[in-house]
Design a protein that fits this description.
Layout (H helix, E strand, L loop, with lengths): L1 H6 L2 E7 L6 H11 L8 H6 L6 H11 L6 H17 L2 E8 L1 H5 L5 H19 L2 E9 L4 H10 L9 E5 L11 H9 L3 E6 L6 H8 L5 E4 L7 H10 L2 E4 L1 H6 L11 H7 L3 E3 L4 H4 L3 H11 L4 H14 L4 H17 L1
Parallel strand pairs: 1-2, 2-3, 3-4, 4-5, 5-6, 6-7, 7-8
Helix pairs in contact: 5-7, 16-17
Bound molecules: adenine (ADE) and zinc ion (ZN).
Length: 334
């Protein structure tokens, strides 16, 4: 099974670039930038990754991101992730980045973008991996800060395909950002949002109806509302599900209790993603393997996760056709 997964072409639609910061690189950047971190080695950092819920993770994740200062740091971070994509046969990836995590520390929006885009361009040229960038607003911050961030993105409009919404879901519902998302849509951005990860299924409905999202990030709480599940199936609204993240953050107590395979078999468009792989114990192949080993998934079911992600991706029609062709060729060869 692992061999099938390793060779399977993959598309990742839910990856926070700051969440791909491995402890080794965290140490290297801390040293390079003269920043103190409260750990003495990478193993100690890994030992601290024991989370009880989303917030307990976010506190450590924002702390880790503080080692990112220069364009070179953002480039190194992104290049390391793209090499992991190559290793896991990820052919297309759509990355979230959290500008406010950096601009609030005095790092310019341009510094972040310059580092990210340089690595992504190199990955396309040297590794053949295509990508898109999604700017995420931090929902624990206020509307004014999100508007300011949207303004800072203006010179980079061509490099950013969509805006998203992440961070602490409970207490920060989609309607808080209704006006920012309306403005983003007016400026020509697509929209996505984390919804129904820890928060109620009504956040999924509101993200669809108020924020006009093209797909839902996580969305696993949809199972609490059968009418919503019917809508997701009917309208083929894609959920970017992150299995290892959900078990690490105790959204599900074990992988066996995860709803992803049940949703797939009901006809919901679900995909498999790594979310914050450096913190949750694995990249794409590990997430696929965790699902495959906990459920009796067939090769065709595993391939369907990729097919769903291709259809829900923001790449061109031509690239989608190419990715589907690649997938079909692989399935036929097995
Ligand atoms: N930021 C990074 N990872 C996240 C997650 N899983 N949920 C919400 N915000 C995040
Ligand atoms: Zn996420």
């Amino acid at each position: 099974m692992y061999q099938f997964i390793a060779g399977l072409p993959k598309v990742e639609l839910h990856l926070h670039i700051e969440g791909s910061l491995e402890p080794e690189l965290m140490f290297e950047l801390a040293q390079r930038n003269g920043i103190d971190i409260p750990f003495s080695n990478p193993e100690e950092v890994r030992g601290a990754y024991d989370f009880s819920n989303l917030q307990s993770f976010l506190d450590i994740y924002y702390q880790g991101a503080q080692v990112l200062i220069s364009k070179r740091d953002f480039y190194d971070l992104t290049w390391a992730y793209m090499l992991r994509c190559k290793a896991d046969n990820v052919l297309h990836t759509e990355l979230f980045f959290d500008p406010q995590t950096h601009t609030d520390r005095g790092i310019s929006f341009d510094t972040v973008m310059e580092g990210l885009t340089q690595a992504l361009l190199q990955a396309e040229l040297e590794l053949g991996i295509t990508s898109q960038l999604i700017l995420c607003f931090l929902r624990h911050l206020d509307e004014a800060s999100a508007f300011e961030t949207l303004q800072q993105a203006k010179p980079w409009k061509q490099e950013i395909v969509a805006v998203g919404l992440d961070s602490s879901e409970i207490g920060h519902p989609p309607e808080k950002f209704a006006r920012v998302f309306a403005e983003a849509v007016k400026q020509g951005y697509l929209t996505v949002a984390h919804a129904g990860e820890e928060g109620p299924s009504s956040n999924i409905t509101d993200a669809l109806d108020i924020l006009k999202v093209s797909r839902i990030d996580h969305g696993v709480r949809c199972v609490d509302d059968p009418q919503l599940v019917s809508r997701l199936i009917e309208q083929q609204i894609h959920l970017t599900v992150c299995p290892l993240s959900n078990t690490k953050l105790k959204v599900f107590q074990s992988m066996e209790q995860h709803s992803i395979v049940d949703l797939l078999r009901q006809g919901v468009s679900v995909g498999i993603n790594s979310d914050d792989p450096a913190y949750f114990g694995g990249y794409m192949n590990d997430n696929f393997a965790a699902v495959a080993s906990s459920f009796h998934t067939s090769h065709l079911e595993l391939a369907k996760f990729t097919a769903n992600a291709i259809d829900a991706s923001f790449c061109s029609i031509a690239r989608k056709a190419e990715l589907h062709q690649n997938l079909q060729h692989y399935v036929d060869s097995q």
